[in-house]
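seq:
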Amino acid sequence: MRHDHLITSKQLSRADIETVLDRAAEIADDPAAVADRHANAVLGLLFFEPSTRTKMSFETAMKRLGGSVVDMGSVESSSVKKGETLADTVRVIEGYADALVLRHPKQGAAAMASEFVDVPLLNAGDGAGHHPTQTMLDLYTIRENAGLDDLTIGIMGDLKYGRTVHSLAYALTNFDTRQHFISPESLQLPREVVYDLHQQDDTQIREHEALESVLSSLDVLYVTRIQRERFPDENEYQKVAGEYQIDLETLEEASDELTIMHPLPRVDEIAPEIDETEHAAYFEQAHNGVPVRMALLDLLLAGGEADE
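struct:
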């Protein structure tokens, strides 16, 4: 994987993805082997939006590689509150760190910020745009549970504002997959994303409003939260809130081998009773964030080489 920054999954080839996933698997099998690999490295965290899993797993990943972390902290306690621009913020923190992780509410913020820094910058979510490191751990989880070729996957929920969905859909075009998108009409994939997906050779995508029409054919069901914070109008949110939920009764028509995933946090999309079934992979998915982000940091800090 030879990139200076990781901004979107669209920049990744199948070979890039497999390099990261293979490296993550090696790390997961023997984490002690990389415990001091980046002992002098410092990772800068710049989170302009709340985060639990992404922020903590990046911090854990850097520390398990032997490095350390500096954190900008909340927007309210930073110079951003005084009017400092994003360009100035990243240029300042670049001087303290060997790599940067940025989450920002504005789509395109990570791409813009990457123009101002020379250290690797990883996009940890830019508004309703992309979330490529989440995509990498999603792909790792899918590969571990169902494989990545000859795969039928359903992606359900907020497909309009869901950055995890956009990133995953683009990345899956590198593999032999059939993608089914399930959502209310008002939350369908953005038309530009649909257009891009149709331009990929051999990519098969279908859109549905009802899960029942496709559930029995799925190897993986990727459920997403209806994101209240992304809606410009509260009334529009209320029209679709709670519309797409699954419980044990829903799964009666599903394959016994169905893997259910969710980027978390969940609200009421997946009933807690599903947690105890063989279908549930969303906590495993969250835990996979550490070896996958270790692999990404390792490769970027080493200039794309897995071994020094």
